[in-house]
Amino acid sequence: MNATPDLVAAAQERSGGCLCGRIRFAVRGAAVYPHTCSCPHCQKLGGAPLMWWAGFAPTDLTWTGEGGEPTWFETFEGETKRGFCPHCGSRIAAIDSGVPELGINVTALDDTSGPDLIPVNQSFRGNAVHWLPQVADTQNSAVR
Fold this sequence. Notes:
Blueprint: H1 5-11, E1 13-17, E2 24-28, E3 32-37, H2 40-46, E4 51-56, E5 61-63, E6 71-76, E7 80-84, E8 91-96, E9 102-105, E10 122-123
Parallel strand pairs: 3-10
Antiparallel strand pairs: 1-2, 2-5, 3-4, 4-9, 6-7, 7-8, 8-9
């Protein structure tokens, strides 16, 4: 019996972590709403023109490293938290109110090649740098 692509994706496990290796995690399942974000906050936070995010159910994520869970910085009080390693500064995760998934900075994953990680949209297009092509909106969804 062959497994359907949805079953294969649901069983998939990925690992990731910070640059120094103190914070590590494992996450199961397919990514939800992979996208890039060009908001001024993500640009400053990432030190780049955009950040690349994907959501995963919080119950499908386990913090596995000796450093435990990231340190959470409340970026917008009561609305948004960003998780980072207090030792090396790597940006790892995000919690946004009203969004059921935990956001993972895709570049924190050890392997970023999964087809479910291809961005389906770009948030804050109006703030994007003019010299970098924008991500096509293949999902026709509003900014989350």
